[in-house]
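Subject: Sanity check before I submit

Could someone independently write out the structure tokens for this chain? I want to compare against mine line by line before I put it in a report. The sequence has 69 residues.
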Amino acid sequence: MSKQRIEVGDTIRNSENGLIGVLKKEVDRKNYYVEGYHEYAGKWQTAGGSLSDYQKWDLYQKGENDNIT
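---
Independent answer below. Compare away.
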């Protein structure tokens, strides 16, 4: 079974630390980041990177295409 491609708006999970968040893209840039909320730490955001960086994360839930920013 092949891994499903992760896209902007999808909820993804980092298997190394268990954090779950939504993949987002900066407007007019090729920089992607994940934003989420942790029960104890509160709101968090990754520093950013390329889309291929986040293809290594696990797909948790497919997003809705109309929610893409």
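---
OP: Matches mine. For the report I'm noting this point. Strands lie at 11-13, 20-25, 32-38, 42-45, 58-61.
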